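Hi R.,

Here's the input for the NAI complex you asked about:
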Amino acid sequence: MNLSLTHQIALVTGASSGLGYACAEGLAAAGASVVVNYNSHAEPAEALAAQIRQQGGQAIALGGDVSNEEDVERLFEQTIAEFGALDILVANSGLQKDSPIGEMTLADWNKVIEVNLTGQFLCARAALRQFRKQGTQRNVSRAIGKIIHMSSVHQVIPWGGHVNYASSKGGVDMLMRSIAQEIGGEKIRVNSVAPGAIATPINASSREGEGTNKILKLVPYGRIGDPVDVANAVVWLASDLSDYVHGTTLFVDGGMSLYPGFQDNG
Ligand code: NAI
Ligand code: BGC
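And here is the predicted structure with NAI in place:
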């Protein structure tokens, strides 16, 4: 059993809060050196990197908008300049801009697709180019590189009032599987994690008041997820313990994707 990520370099996008933050912590705890990417909130990202260093690990915080090609290229260049290589990408950044379909603006549609889908494409492309450059010479893991996309249960569960978001995550599923099919022979592993309802800032407003109870009706396992639930899955997918897992989505959702509304005859 080897969950260790010692001598490996990981880049986590959108790691100044929520799932990205927990993934960066988890990867560092498993021994990886971590790049903590942030878009606009440098402070929590810097603080997390400092905390990891204090605990004996290696980490830096780097800014960059994943939907901007130049930013992404710079982010990867700075990662290589700092750590010399890249072994693990967690393409985590994402956002919601919710409204009923009739009122959804083109700007809100575009923004969500640009960050949640185009951002994942740009980061995956930059990562695999770097993995190809490194080839087999690093010898720190059985695969020459690992890409983990942060998807959502909404890659399969349609979501009224959030059609831009659900479309972006449906796109992430096809993006992940198509890349995995195309480059699998190169020993680059590509997978997704699809969380259900996890307590982070992205859904803070929907958990207010009666919100949590409403969400719990959709979770057979009976609790809202913690960011660490997702981080644990990401660390496993990044490690050699999952070396034969390729082109798969790991649902971390307490059973949300079981359509619990049909439990009692529908
Ligand atoms: P969050 O709002 O705490 O984190 C989102 C992160 O993405 C933030 O750090 C934000 O700065 C970053 N980000 C946004 N736009 C960016 C950009 N242009 N460039 C770089 N970074 C950017 O929310 P959470 O929950 O941690 O979300 C992380 C990912 O998990 C997202 O892709 C989200 O869709 C996904 N997810 C979350 C679930 C949940 O229940 N919390 C469930 C399923 C998926
Ligand atoms: C969304 C959250 C939501 C969860 C379950 C995620 O993709 O970002 O807001 O709570 O799915 O519906």
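One thing worth noting: The mean pLDDT is 97.

Cheers,
M.
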